[in-house]
Amino acid sequence: MDDLAAFHAxxxxxxxxxxxxxxxxxxxxxxxKPLQRLADEQAALHxxxxxxxxxxxxxxxxxxxxxxxxGLAASVLxxxxxxxxxxxxxxxxxxxxxxxARSLLGAFLAEALRQGMRCVRVVxxxxxxxxxxxxxLRPLTRGWLAQRDEVLAYCQARPRDGGEGALIVLLRAxxxxx
Length: 178
Prior knowledge:
This protein is of the alpha+beta class. It has a domain of about 110 residues: 2-Layer Sandwich (Ribosomal Protein S8, Chain: A, domain 1). Strands 1-4-5-3-2 form a five-stranded mixed sheet, with helices on both faces. Strand 2, helix 5 and strand 3 form a beta-alpha-beta unit. The longest helix is centred in the middle third of the chain and has 17 residues. It is elongated, with a radius of gyration of 25 Å. The N and C termini lie far apart (about 60 Å).
């Protein structure tokens, strides 16, 4: 007897179980992580642990990026720095030129506001991939954010969230579509 015939012989007298009315759903798979992003994060970690500390790094120490819309209490920025706001989405501008980055940033902020998000992370990078290792998008991104009406405040991300290569941005409350 082959295996199939043996199986049929073994289950010949069986009956199906009655329908319980339950629906079995597979758990949703987590979204994949981009491999290049993981490689970039590993490279940044290695650079921060083993790289040389240049003059610019010594001069910038303690001078973290921040912005607070005039008229808002200083506690808003303090709470943002302390991580009291949950980051709901992020945007990575690595590898984009200034025009692409500005356009994508505007679209991202508009969509975040439309969805009712209040806190997002914008990764502009440290400029390590730029010519002469000069950050191009870092100062541009800070300026663009300060010009946007929907931005209430931003601060430099904590080291585990991107450090000086990222900003945590607090947005005004928007209207959500349901």
